[in-house]
Design goal:
The protein is built from 3 helices and 3 strands; from the N terminus they run βααββα. By secondary structure, it is α+β, with helices and mostly antiparallel strands. The protein has one domain. The protein has a 3-stranded antiparallel β-sheet.
Length: 69
């Protein structure tokens, strides 16, 4: 989904919590926090919490695959 500027419609975007991202990626929450703080994974800050678009998690995982053969 592409959001068109600050007035774009994001009603169809699914946001995940840090705990949900950690569960999907099978890593610790601290690893997710590190990725958020160093800019590896984009997020939205809501108060003291972070929310990550599911499509950003999917894209990160897609780009992270490599051939181990």
């Amino acid at each position: 989904m592409v959001v068109d500027g600050p007035t774009g419609d994001i009603s169809g975007v699914k946001f995940l919590t840090v705990a949900e991202v950690a569960a999907v990626m099978r890593v610790s929450k601290m690893t997710v926090y590190r990725m958020l703080h160093d800019g590896t994974l984009p997020a939205v800050r809501v108060g003291r919490s972070f929310r990550v678009k599911q499509e950003d998690v999917d894209e990160f995982l897609r780009k992270s695959f490599y051939d181990a053969g």
